[in-house]
Design a protein that fits this description.
Elements: E1 4-7, H1 16-34, H2 42-55, H3 61-75, H4 82-96, H5 103-111, E2 115-120, E3 137-140, H6 152-162, E4 169-173, H7 176-185, E5 189-193, E6 208-210, H8 216-226
Helix pairs in contact: 1-4, 2-3
Bound molecules: magnesium ion.
GO molecular function, one term: hydrolase activity
Keywords: Hydrolase
Protein name: Haloacid dehalogenase
């Protein structure tokens, strides 16, 4: 029986990509004012992000962002502008990061039947991204030495925070490797948020696949039925 539903943050509950694009555009606009002929392009900033991330995927996300921006600016002799543009980036990144349209109603409905938690590798703090007060607990990689997904320790911390056995927890996320394979290996039930309708990229089959968060409450109720265990008292047949 599922007692707790725990969410990944970015691209699961939060529509992050438009916020990143907007924040990068603000940074690039500011750099173009400083150096109209020299300023980097969005593609260069994205390439530097990818390179820095590939070098050390375990690093905290804000460190990756800062180092990638430093690298881009250094190539244009603009490193002295790093601090200001990091601040500018994070100001707009948080200001613009908001839940998907069906997220808050889905969370409210789930809270009627489950403990609802939030556990992320990233830096999308719930209260800065329109999700303040939504969760029974929040876990962030790097806080208190918590390693990033897919580390088993991450999911052990999820279970401890939920006060439930791994098999009583449904982990919900968009990243197949981090949010399906890894929690399944930890003994959790898994829900893959597959908005783009991708093929299953690996051998581990999620317990549930959804294209929209609004499908989650009924999907979880059906899972409980398939377990041969009655759904939560008010969750059946809705
Ligand atoms: Mg994600």
């Amino acid at each position: 029986m599922i007692k707790a539903v725990v969410f990944d943050a970015d691209e699961t509950l939060l529509d992050l990509r438009p916020a990143i694009d907007y924040a990068l555009e603000q940074v690039l606009g500011s750099l173009r004012l400083l150096a109209p002929d020299l300023a980097p392009t969005r593609e260069q900033m994205r390439d530097d992000w990818s390179a820095v991330f590939a070098e050390d995927p375990e690093a905290p996300v804000p460190h990756i962002r800062r180092e990638s921006m430093r690298r881009t600016l250094a190539r244009f002799g603009m490193e002295q502008h790093l601090n200001h543009h990091c601040d500018l980036f994070f100001h707009f990144r948080y200001q613009q990061t908001r839940p998907f349209p069906d997220a808050l109603a889905t969370l409210a409905r789930l809270r009627e039947s489950y403990l609802v938690g939030y556990a992320t590798n990233g830096n999308s703090t719930a209260d800065r991204c329109g999700l303040g007060g939504e969760f029974a607990f929040e876990l962030y990689a790097h806080q208190g030495g918590l390693p990033k997904k897919p580390a088993p320790e991450f999911f052990a911390a999820v279970a401890a925070a939920a006060g439930a056995k791994p098999g009583e927890i449904a982990y919900v996320g968009d990243n197949y490797h981090h949010d399906v394979q890894a929690p399944a290996a930890a003994g959790m039930r898994t829900v893959w948020v597959n908005r783009a309708g991708h093929e299953l990229p690996g051998p581990v089959v999620p317990d549930l696949v959804i294209e929209r968060l609004a499908q989650l409450p009924d999907g979880l109720s059906r899972l409980a039925t398939w377990d041969g265990v009655p759904p939560a008292s008010d969750g059946a047949g809705r």
